[in-house]
Amino acid sequence: MLILECPCCGVMADETELAPGGEAHLKRYGPGSSDEDFEGYLFHRANPKGVHFERWRHANGCGKWFLAARCTNTLEVFATYSAQTPEPPQHVIDAIRAKRPDWSIEA
Amino acid sequence: MSDVSALIGAVAEGRTRVEEAGLAGMITLRGDLSSSKLVAAVTGLAGVEMPGQREIKAGDDKAIAWMSRDELLIMVPHEEADGAVATLSAALAGEHATVANVSDARALFRVEGPHAREVLAKLVPVDLHPESFRAGEMRRTRMAQVPAAIWQSGEDQFSVICFRSVAQYVFDLLALSAKDGSEVGYF
Ligand SMILES: [Zn+2]
User: Fold this and answer.
1) Which of A18, A42, B58, B95 has its CA 20 to 30 A from that of B143?
2) Domain membership flag for residue A28
3) CA neighbor of A18 nearest in space, from B70, B139, B147, B118
């Protein structure tokens, strides 16, 4: 069972209180972008075995979106953080590196 | 507004009693909760302090509950709900805020008795241990298959709010969970 701390209301939320929103930090391409960019925005996902950034919504709770950094392999949760950020903040990167010294964000 | 509550005061008797609490006035207010104008309007109306994160502040017949960082639920006597919406709307003129009378969209239940805490613990993914979940906390969660908000409203009493459309479902859940002989005695 996955448990994530909602940074909006502070609850340690059981997975069944949450709704998954897929990969986080996607750059949105809309009207006027190239077909390749639009296709990538719609369909291409990193889908890593390892560190992953995800969107979650505390659907049966405060209702807010937030982001989570976790490992798809071990199910460790490194951090949850505000959805109002275009890239992982430094404290989240530090929390990941503390457990995955070899990890880099480009990987 | 509706003249009758969702289940017209349905009751499931037992050592722990479940009751649909009848008509209740409920107002959803969304806006900037740090605004002094908003805080003054809400606390002035309800006569209780402003709740912090996940708190509920209850007085004799009114209460304010923190529902999210931009949302409050204000509870008032049913007949005062329309007036309270008008008062709040006037007080918040010019603020980026919305005030809605949601009384008819909700149902309210009371679960009271020696195993009331346990009745809820069987139904929600929340740590309801007395040291984790105390009076004064408003907890929005999922009760079996539907959203619900719960708080401790008395020594042996908990209150539950759900959507009116699922009132019968929630009543049945609570009644089954409270059934005499089904006590676990964990707490
Ligand atoms: Zn939350």
Assistant:
1) B58
2) yes
3) B147
Architecture of the B11-177 domain? 2-Layer Sandwich (3.30)
Name residues whose C-beta falls within 8 Å of residue B110's C-beta, 6 or more positions apart in sequence. Answer: B17, B18, B19, B21, B153, B157, B158, B159, B160
CB contact under 8 A, B68 and A60: no
Contact A17 B142 (CB under 8 A): yes
pLDDT (tens digit, 0 to 9) for every residue of chain B, 187 residues total? 899 999 999 999 999 999 999 999 999 999 999 999 999 999 999 999 999 999 999 999 999 999 999 999 999 999 999 999 999 999 999 999 999 999 999 999 999 999 999 999 999 999 999 999 999 999 999 999 999 999 999 999 999 999 999 999 999 999 999 999 999 999 8
ipTM for the whole predicted complex goes beyond 0.90: yes
Instruction: Give the global pTM.
Output: 0.94
Nearest to B68 among A8, A14, A17 (CB): A8
Measured CB to CB, residues of chain A less than 8 Å from chain B are 8-12, 14, 16-17, 59-64
